[in-house]
Amino acid sequence: MLSQDEAYDLLSNARRRFVLSYLRAQDGPVPLNELSQRLAAQENGIPVDDLTDQQIKRIYVSLYQTHLPKLEEAELIEYDRDRSVLELREAADRLDDYLPTEESEERSWQLVYGALAGTGLLVYAIVSLVPSVPISMRQLGVVIVVAFAIVSLVHYFSERD
After folding, report:
1. Architecture of domain 4-98 in CATH?
2. CB 67 within 8 A of CB 15
């Protein structure tokens, strides 16, 4: 079992995170050349077809000499040097607790809370500037607090699943 420090060390490098993520998305072994090209394209922000041999080689060497041995030592990947292919091992699931899930990335709670606060501020401004609005500041305050409480409960229970 990986300790928390070991997991954070393995995930501290963007290239290792990319390798794990890319392998997780594949159904089987991935050639090291393909992985190097995909990572080089991502790091350079260009399509794979526009990469130079030097850009690919720089990534290939870095993966081969540094990152793959580290992931292999942690028993997260299996690297067949004869065939120059690698694949994710089941043990990589141990890192799931340290990686964001697709669900947690789907909803940005900061935006939800920010939108609620902005809406509350806008309604407060309208109520305070328009004298004929049929709601008191006390009632508005209760509505805003209740809205934040409801959103907080939804956030709490959605994170527990």
Report:
1. Orthogonal Bundle (1.10)
2. yes
Instruction: Identify the H or E element spanning 79.
Output: strand 77-80
Please provide the distance, in angstroms rounded to a whole number, between the alpha carbons at the two ends of the chain. Answer: 23
Task: Count CA within 13 A, CB hemisphere, residue 62.
Answer: 16
Cα Dmax for the chain: 80
DSSP state at residue 82:
T
Q: What is the pLDDT of residues 28-70, one digit of tens each?
A: 999 999 999 999 999 999 999 999 999 999 999 999 999 999 9
pTM comes to: 0.61
Domain boundaries of the chain, sorted by first residue: 4-98, 102-160
In sequence order, which residues have a C-beta less than 8 Å from that of residue 141 and are 6 or more positions away? Answer: none
User: Do residues 92 and 21 lie in contact, with contact meaning Cβ atoms separated by under 8 Å?
Assistant: no
Over its C-alpha atoms, the chain yields an Rg (Å, rounded) of 24
CA distances from 129 to 122, 124, 133, 137 (A): 11, 9, 9, 11
